[in-house]
Amino acid sequence: MSEGVEKRWNFVVVVDNEPGVLSGISGMFSARGYNIDSLTVCSVDNDHSCSRMNIVTRADERLARQIMAQIKRLIPVRRVDILEDGREGFVAKEVALVRVVSEGANRREALRIATIFDAKASDTTLTSFVFVVQGGSGKVDAFVSLMRSLGEVEVARSGVVAIHRGSEIPGM
User: Which of 55, 79, 162, 171 stands the most exposed, by the fewest C-beta atoms within 10 Å?
Assistant: First the structure.
């Protein structure tokens, strides 16, 4: 990959689960002028001693490697993996709740589009639907875009979660 070509990068960061860790990592991004497109955090072991962070940002390859090196230098970080968008070897998904307010033919069209995207109606009223859609960010973006053409839309997104494919599980 050539330098200077910006793309999405998923950083999987396993950290000690203690106060201030999230602030320290997000502060590192902010202090260096990097933007975070998506951030999810969850405890990942039985005793809740470590957490997994999925951080998505846009950068060229040189900057992505620099970000990874800077994250590794932070004290409570146990492991950092970098997953390049568009490459094989990992699965990345997100979930979105999409509320669309529409009437008449637009309601039928919303249901038709939801079927195509395998979205499920989680709530319905006479004037609105709340759909649950899951998949890659591109799929969620496309679904939201189509729903916006049918009426007023409100969106709540989970953020991207990513994991390596295969049978080898890296240590904490």
Answer: 171
What does the block give as tokens for 76? 């409570």
Residue at 171: amino acid letter: G
pLDDT, one tens digit per residue, over 35-67 is: 999 999 999 888 889 999 999 999 999 999 999
Residues in the chain: 172
Residue range 99-136, pLDDT digits in tens: 999 999 999 999 999 999 999 999 999 999 999 999 99
How many other C-beta atoms can be found within 10 angstroms of the C-beta atom of residue 69? 10
What distance in Å separates the CA atoms of residue 100 and residue 115, rounded to the nearest whole number? 15
Distance, CA of 82 to CA of 54 (rounded, Å): 10
- Which of these three, 41, 57, 84, is where a domain ends? 84
CA distance 68 to 9: 10
Q: pTM of this prediction?
A: 0.80
Q: Are the beta carbons of 131 and 121 closer than 8 angstroms?
A: yes
Cα 107 to Cα 100: distance, rounded to the nearest angstrom: 9
Assign 78 to helix, strand or coil. strand
Q: How many Å apart are CA 171 and CA 7, to the nearest integer?
A: 28
